[in-house]
Write a structure and sequence with these properties.
About 30% of the residues lie in helices and about 25% in strands. The chain is an alpha+beta fold and about 425 residues long. It folds into 3 domains: about 65-100, no CATH class; about 125-210, Pdz3 Domain (Roll); about 210-355 and about 365-415, 2-enoyl-CoA Hydratase, Chain A, domain 1. The strands form 5 sheets. A 6-stranded mixed beta sheet has the order 10-11-12-15-16-19, sandwiched between helices. Strands 1, 13, 14, 17 and 18 form a 5-stranded antiparallel beta sheet that branches. α8 (about 270-280) runs parallel beside α9. The longest helix is centred in the N-terminal third of the chain and has 31 residues, at about 5-35. The N and C termini lie far apart (about 120 Å). About 30% of the residues are buried.
Length: about 425
């Protein structure tokens, strides 16, 4: 029996389609098996679509290499107990963020993010020293006053080469902080490099409570001077500052003091807005405190928007190599507007602005969003601010200066009582 030609054509067509679909299905299954090996691992991977700006160009990035590497590590690494998917995940993000090669742009795990917020809140457990990066080396910006680090003999400018015998080469700031911090009462040994050579310094960790503002009064040639130490620009700084500024203003108006020495030595910075708030205590309304430049949004100029209480008090500002970021904004603005004389040593030189972002699950991201310029347009990044009166403190490495031995403070007191 002969089938009609059209019927034969239909059968052949359906057969061809069937063979094509079967082959395609097989190849598709084969591709899925090959490229979805991550689904065969011992955990579940969730993906979320990002929310990029509409004008952002999509980049074609093949993540096959990433998953291939992930799978090979999990399958072949000799010590199975060290395979921690969560740590691998966080490590991947850290590496991605670190690729921009900016020491102030970094990812924080939930634990690290909590520690970072505790720092600015003025309470944490550790040794009480502010760290920085210079020439890819971990450096002590400054030990906090009366901290375990200061009491043990740690000095501004010390290079940390080892923590508990482990080299800090290629460590990030966060790695170093996490190694140094620990429970109250435990010991950590820092190996520091100085001009005199390397030295091991054992330190017992304690709970560190850091007041931002400490106000005392010093005598010089029969005159009383307000001496205000500003240790950071943190969560409680503005409220602490207002209380101290009110007290100083009252004494100045009653002619009980001859002037003010503002000490930001060893102050590593903090919130930019706080530096603007404090500078506004001394500058007239409308004056520029700092300029912020960025490629992602409009530039911004921060100006004085309130009437300060200390507009005419004689003022000397103390700075040193531990004065960084917001400290440099404050001291630089007061210098540029000829409101204060700077005394001490050249500052640290950090001229960038970071934004602290909270991510999901408690993680965080600190990202450099801009650079800042002093009112005169100077960008001090990497070079710092030179004081108008250079004074160096010479101190035995194992001793802490008293106010009487502090040549920088004594020079500041001498200058402030002669200013009008």
């Amino acid at each position: 029996m002969k089938l009609p030609t059209k019927r034969i054509t239909d059968i052949l067509l359906y057969l061809s389609i069937g063979i094509f679909l079967f082959g395609s299905g097989y190849k598709l299954a084969e591709w899925k098996i090959k490229n979805s090996s991550r689904d065969q691992l011992t955990y579940t991977v969730f993906n979320a679509q990002n929310n990029l700006p509409k004008d952002t160009k999509a980049e074609n990035v093949d993540f096959g290499l990433f998953w291939d590497t992930w799978e090979k590590v999990e399958q072949k690494y000799v010590d199975r107990g060290k395979i921690d998917p969560q740590k691998m995940f966080y490590g991947s993000i850290k590496g991605m963020v670190a690729s921009v090669e900016d020491p102030y742009t970094f990812f924080l795990t939930p634990e690290e993010n909590t520690q970072s917020k505790a720092d600015l809140g003025g309470k944490f457990e550790g040794i009480g020293a502010q760290l920085g990066l210079k020439e890819n080396r971990i450096v002590i910006i400054a030990p906090l006053k009366d901290s375990p680090a200061e009491n043990a003999g740690v000095l501004s400018g010390d290079i940390i080469t080892k923590v508990d015998g482990e080299s800090t080469e290629k460590w990030t700031l966060l790695q170093t902080v996490s190694k140094i911090r620990g429970d109250h009462g435990t010991e950590v040994i820092l190996t520091v490099a100085r001009a005199s050579g390397e030295k091991d310094i054992p330190i017992i960790r304690q709970e560190i409570k850091v007041p931002s503002v400490e106000l005392t009064y010093e005598k010089k040639n029969g005159k009383t001077v307000a001496y205000l130490r500003l240790s950071q620009f943190g969560d409680t700084t503005n409220s602490e500052w207002e209380s101290a500024a009110t007290e100083i203003a009252n004494k100045w108006n009653n002619k009980e003091i001859a002037g003010l020495v503002l000490d930001v030595r060893g102050n590593p910075g903090g919130y930019l807005d706080s530096s603007v708030f404090i500078a506004s205590e001394f500058l007239e309304q409308g004056k520029t405190v700092v300029k912020q430049e960025t490629t992602n949004s409009d530039d911004r100029v921060y100006t004085v928007k309130r009437k300060g209480l200390l507009l005419d008090i004689p003022l000397i500002v103390l700075i040193n190599q531990g004065s960084a970021s917001a400290s440099e904004i404050l001291s630089g603005a007061l210098r540029d507007h000829k409101r204060a004389t700077l005394v001490g040593q050249k500052s640290f030189g950090k001229g960038s602005v970071q934004e602290a972002l909270d991510l999901q699950d408690g993680a965080g991201l600190h990202v450099t969003i801009a650079k800042w310029l002093l009112p005169n347009g100077e960008w001090i990044n990497g070079k710092g601010i030179e004081p108008e009166v250079m004074v160096e403190n010479k101190v035995d490495e194992d001793n802490t200066l008293t106010n009487e031995q502090d040549a920088q403070l004594q020079k500041a007191l001498e200058l402030v009582i002669t200013r009008k």
